[in-house]
Amino acid sequence: MTGAELRIGVVLEAFLDWPLDEVLPWLREAAPEITDVEVGAGGYAPHPHCDVAVLLHSAAERAAWLDLIARHGLRLDALNAWGNPLHPDEDLARRHDEDLRNAIRLAALLGADRVVAMAGCPAGAPGDGVPHFGAGGWLPYLEGVYQRQWEEQIAPYWSDLAAFAAAESPQLRVCLELHPGTCAFNVETFGRVAALGPSLAANLDPSHFFWMGMDGHRVAEALGELVGHAHGKHANAEPGHASPAGPAVVGALRRRHRRRARSRVADHCPSEARGRRSPPRRRRPRGTRPDRRWPTRRRY
Fold first, then answer.
1. Percent of the chain as helix, strand, coil, to the nearest 5
2. What is the distance between the terminal CA atoms of the chain, rounded to a whole angstrom?
3. Is residue 197 within 8 Å of 164, Cβ to Cβ?
4. How far is CA 190 from CA 44, 176, 197, 291, in A?
5. Which of 61, 183, 190, 278 is most buried, with most CB under 10 Å away?
6. pTM of the entire structure?
């Protein structure tokens, strides 16, 4: 979003069954208001449309990939490598950290200046095998959990990652989605992480605020210029309730941004775009199962 301009894109995770060279022309025909695409590149994000290893190592492949997108009148908005680089499973954390850093490297090479990610969630104590959401609490066994996580894992990791991103591309922003279950889920916790380096920004997805009982409009106002990217859901408001991601949120972002900002991605394209017919879904061969190495993202 630049001034009064609102650029709208789509997260291609909604089209995992479709090759890139099929989904791009369909988008231009079915949803001509779409100008940008956000492409999965690792972590928990499936990435059938982006072979990160190939693109990192071949300038010719990068040029051809960008040309394919441009031929259909679209632009690369961001790469998405949402995961948990703080996970107590060291192998998983290492993979997600590598995927995030590779997404940053690739974005810089492709000329993109946004990488969408999540802040992650570490263990509650040494030796724990699962992440512990340190959301606070007065009970004795919860006291000090978040502070330990902050001092031992969150601050060291994100300070280093912010420096890495700045070295790869000073203009690039790693936009962390404020999501419960991660160490940056509201204005306060995100603000602490963002203070670790100017390469860190927020990915604003109001849908998560509503099921946490937060006012998305006020969150947008409070974050202000820390918002570097936004996701919007296809949602209808119940009678008597405010629209979850309606004009008020966009207005709040416009009022707060005096310099270049990004708020233009519609997350999960609906099955029909403005009443236009959607492409037929491909059926999996009988007896096969979808890849379950990544979790299905819920639609709220």
1. 40, 15, 45
2. 24
3. no
4. 21, 8, 12, 32
5. 183
6. 0.81
b vs e for 157-190, b when ≥16 Cβ sit within 10 Å of the residue's Cβ? bbeebbebbbebbeebbbbbbbbeebbbbbbebb
Domain ranges of the chain: 9-266
Residue 19: CB atoms within 10 Å: 10
Beta-carbon contacts of residue 97 (< 8 Å; ≥ 6 apart):
85
Distances (CA, A) of 247 to 8, 21, 216, 243: 14, 33, 11, 8
Fold that domain 9-266 belongs to in CATH: TIM Barrel (3.20.20)
How many other CB atoms sit within 10 Å of the CB of residue 104?
A: 26
- The sign of the dihedral angle between the CA atoms of 273, 275, 280, 284 is positive
Residue with tokens 């060279």: 21
Q: 142 — phi, psi (to 5°)?
A: -105, -15
Q: Hey, how many other C-beta atoms are within 10 angstroms of the C-beta on 116?
A: 31
User: Mind listing the pLDDT tens digit of every residue in the chain (300 residues)?
Assistant: 444 467 889 999 889 999 999 999 999 999 999 999 999 999 998 899 999 999 999 999 999 999 999 999 999 999 999 999 999 999 999 999 999 999 999 999 999 999 999 999 999 998 999 999 988 777 888 888 999 999 999 999 999 999 999 999 999 999 999 999 999 999 999 999 999 999 999 999 988 888 888 998 899 999 999 999 999 875 555 565 545 445 555 555 555 554 333 434 444 443 333 333 444 444 444 443 333 333 333 322
- Alpha helices in the chain, H assignment, sequence order: 20-30, 52-57, 59-71, 90-110, 145-149, 155-168, 187-194, 206-210, 216-223, 247-256
Return the axis-axis angle of helices 59-71 and 20-30, rounded to nearest 10°. Answer: 30
Q: How far is CA 38 from the centre of its chain?
A: 9
